[in-house]
Amino acid sequence: MGTPTTAKDKYLLEQLREALLHDDRQELAELRHILNTRKELEERVNPIIEEHLLELEQNFPDTYIQVVQKVVDRRLKQKQDELINIIYPRLGIMVRKYISDEIRMWMERLQENIRRTSNSVFWWKRRKSAAEIIIDSSRSKVEEVYVISHESGLLLGSASSVETVDKDMIAGMLTAIKAFVEDAFKRTDEELQGIRYGAYEIIIHNFFNYYIAIAATGSISEQERDELADKILEFAANELNHDLQEPDPVFYARIRRQLEAYFIAPYKIEAPND
Amino acid sequence: MISKKVVITGHFGVGKTSLFNRFISNTFNEKYLTTIGVRVDKKMVEIDGQEVSLVIWDLAGEVSQEKVPRSYFLGASAVIYVFDLSRPATFSRLEDDLQYIQTVLPNVQIRKVGNKKDLVTNETLQNIHQQTSPHYFTSARTGENVQELFQNIARAMLAPAPDRL
Description:
Strand order of the largest sheet of chain B: 2-3-1-4-5-6
Helix content of chain A: 55-70%
Strand order of the largest sheet of chain A: 2-1-5-4-3
Structural class of chain A: alpha+beta
Radius of gyration of chain A: 37 Å
Shape of chain A: elongated
Oligomer: heterodimer
Number of strands of chain A: 5
Strand content of chain A: 5-15%
Number of strands of chain B: 6
Structural class of chain B: alpha/beta
Largest sheet of chain A: 5 strands, antiparallel
Distance between the termini of chain B: 15 Å
Largest sheet of chain B: 6 strands, mixed
Shape of chain B: globular
Largest interface: A-B, 19 and 20 residues
Distance between the termini of chain A: 118 Å
Radius of gyration of chain B: 15 Å
Number of helices of chain B: 4
């Protein structure tokens, strides 16, 4: 059969097509209608999707749990330091909070007992002990603060209210002294927590792969020591909660600013006005 | 700016502290002075316009586990192992000492340095070179190769990852 050339041939061909393809064309039109009408399509597709979702929900643990576990394990291994740096100070805060709550409750019970058994007027008048008054008169002052890498002794950040010798050198020597003391006494699970000489004290708080050393002068009361420890934990939780292996210049600048804000500025003593 | 820890170690009297002093302050102390424990100092080195801060730990005496706290080595990017070219006893245990260092710091780069070059003949240098394959022969007394040694370490720290210390 050649190509229809006349109008009559074309008409006849169309008649033939219509006779042969009538049902198929009707079916195609219906399918087009379904595909182009969202509601129609949803009615047919949604049950299938829901069926698959249900199946996935029911079988997900069996099918994918191993894959998920592998991904999580790998991610945890890669970011182990970062994770520990996040958890370490948070745990410290929780432990401290628990202990301080317990002590507070114990103190309240004790005070209540004292109040009951003693002359109430005498205790009310006294309010502060002699020791507390002396401590108040010799307020402590944070002079320097350092964040130092545990292993290398490299300085991660510092702030100071006084001029000192090179801070990198101090960080290195402090780490060496710390390592020496810890090694000499062979207490692998214990860490040096402070050095005291005269009215000067270095308070050390150890974290997973860094430690914070605070040099302070004056008599540090137990309350101040507690406040300082809280502040150190807060600082660590907020500012050092990520991987510290390869810090960049932005990190160093931020840490210095934050150390100043957390530890140095609050302890600055205003010069008296003439 | 990059900060890196460099440890100088080696046997007693090989000139570790003299190398340290020569590099840090460009001086040589004629008087023999044994370091007690460790001394830490730092020096900025400029490589192609970029500064590297070398925080140097000068460890006293021996390399061995019993004499020096293992933790002194930790976190170091480079270790300079110094021996005395005029005293063979100071490099007789070289391989054992290097093995110990590599156990503590598996990925650290080590520079073997024969010091007191000014005290030995060229023939002795050649013999020792065959035995120990050092990276540098130095003289803390004259300053020969001291700056070059530390420059080399600083340059390695700025190198791309595979070659980096």
